[in-house]
Amino acid sequence: MERYFHMLLKTLLMGQGLSALICGTAVTSQFLASVYHLDLPMLQSFINYTLLFLSYTTALLFRTGDGNILQILKKKWWKYILLGLADVEANYAVVKAYQYTTLTSVQLLDCFIIPVLMILSWFFLKARYRIIHYVAVCVCLAGVGAMVGADLLAGRDQGSTGNILLGDGLVILSATLYAVSNVCQEYTVKNQSRVEFLGMLGLFGTLISGIQLAVLEHVQLASIQWTWQIAVVLSGFTLCMYTLYSCMPMVMKLTSATAVNLSLLTADLFSLFCGLFLFQYSFSGLYIVSLVVITVGFIMFNAVPTPNSSPESVSGEGGYDNQAADFDEEGRMGSAVEVTSEHQEKEKETDSRGRKHPSENRECVVISSAEL
Description:
Radius of gyration: 24 Å
Strand content: under 5%
Distance between the termini: 25 Å
Largest sheet: 2 strands, antiparallel
Strand order of the largest sheet: 1-2
Number of helices: 15
Order of helices and strands: HHHHHHHHHHHHHEEHH
Shape: globular
Structural class: mainly alpha
């Protein structure tokens, strides 16, 4: 029980750490747009993907066997192209949405990622949800509703209303693409490795975002009047985004894509709390209510593990992923105990027939839970 609560607390803290990083990217982006009039989302994405390429794609070059970049590209190059395209366009679509719709619409429709994630996880990751998981999702979404209500009361329903239908469509598109990217990420880190996922995303994300940067933002890029303040803020954004991308697979390996995105619902609240001091936002008590409700929903979701109908996967960075076994001691682990007990009974029978004790002369037999 103590280990269970330790894991739950660790998951909660790591999830909120990711929210804090998203808050960092939001605050620095707002500084760049409102203070320095620098609105170049593809440039910001390109720098992040380039860092991923330099660190993780380079690491794949020095791997041997199936983990080498050439072997990965030979077998799965088209899959990672689609992954890179989904991730790049998801980032771009949500930024463009702010030009056509309001902040309230973005906050509400961005939650569309949760049901899409659950559907994709059900079909492709074989996740099986229980009633408490659906209740927990509803609780989290209620917390988002409280946050949006607080924004309306505080007069923060800002943003353009030039083409609300187009803006809302871009948010839904972004949420869907993020869901696809996150499901692919969960599958890869649990069945292959974190380095492979980030290395391939860095490779194709750099290529795709670089092409879009050259086509869409080359004029604005050439007209930038660089100062040390802009460089510092842009570096802050890059550091937060790079750390977010590097750490999210670790959290996703412990939990799931759905659980991670539930924890990220608090990112807007963290951004608001920073805005109280940096941008003189108005405060409402509903923000605290929203934070508590979302946290309770996240704990409810992680309190009961989601059963997985597929066998335990082999991870490229740590062997078998035994998280399910840790939380299901009466299930899969119980069957292992029964097999071990039966094996010991057979050993006792051989002793009663006058043979040597197995401990004196025998070969070690290892029975893994994946073979049961």
